[in-house]
Amino acid sequence: MTKNVIAFQGEPGAYSHQACRFYRPQMEALPCRTFEDVIDAVRSGRAELAMLPVENSTYGRVADIHHLLPESGLHIIDEGFVRVRISLLGVPGARIEDVTDAMSHTVLLGQCRGFLKQHDIRSITGADTAGSAMEVARRGEKSLAALAAPLAGEIYKLDELASGIEDRQNNTTRFLIMSREPNYARRDGLAGSATMMTTFVFRVRNIPAALYKAMGGFATNGVNMTKLESYMVDGIFTATQFYADIEGHPEDPNVARALEELAYFTSSLEILGVYPADPLRAEQAAETA
């Protein structure tokens, strides 16, 4: 296995690349074309870790990721929350007044509607954020700018014409860091440690009120479930798989009891990872308490 390499999807300068720099600054970041390529890079040993986005505070879950994770053979060992700060990037010497068109991924364009309308800038859909910055640098036109992370401007030598132009100032993407091997050794309650999280997928048995009964064990055992999502399997409406995040470690007595009860009402149950909660979780909980 190639040590000290972390794979991500997108061109250099993408938000996933920014996440790699922040959470694994000592590692070399390996750009990959698709999420499947990221997973394959770790499975084949070309990379030690994978950085995968799973959900965004504005746009919800990232398409296809929930389908890929259970089949990936990888394990979640950490999570990270990256604040999506969007910059308007232009060629050297350009000013905002020169820009008539802005290129980016359609999701990012939708997050800057107010700024673009204010400056009468037209939207152009690009393949992705960093790729749009690369294209702006290639064309060298003052009238064309990109909406991307500041890191993309650094990499492609573009000027930051405006920063923090997103409509929602709390826009955040959650990433999962994945490895070929699980790590259950870390525990909460130790000095300086965070709450542990456990992520798993399951399918309920075909019996009345199976999901309701399966969830009862978490309530009665005082286990906080922070996420529960359903999605179809193999495009079949009657085949539903659930993705869940809970607070705690599988070896905690209350979590162990809840998972044991869950297993009774499920036809399959797979733990995808056990990992420390990102500090932002505690901060958000304090703000909403």
Automatic annotation (TrEMBL):
- Which residues are the signal sequence here? none
Q: Pathway, per Swiss-Prot/TrEMBL?
A: Amino-acid biosynthesis; L-phenylalanine biosynthesis; phenylpyruvate from prephenate: step 1/1
Provide the reaction this enzyme catalyses: prephenate + H(+) = 3-phenylpyruvate + CO2 + H2O
Record domain ACT: where = 199-276
The biological processes this protein is annotated with in GO are: L-phenylalanine biosynthetic process
Q: Which PROSITE patterns match?
A: ACT (PS51671), PREPHENATE_DEHYDR_1 (PS00857), PREPHENATE_DEHYDR_3 (PS51171)
Q: Write the Enzyme Commission number(s) for this entry.
A: 4.2.1.51
Q: Which GO terms describe its molecular function?
A: prephenate dehydratase activity
Per its record, how is this protein called by name? prephenate dehydratase
Species per Swiss-Prot/TrEMBL record:
Paracoccus laeviglucosivorans
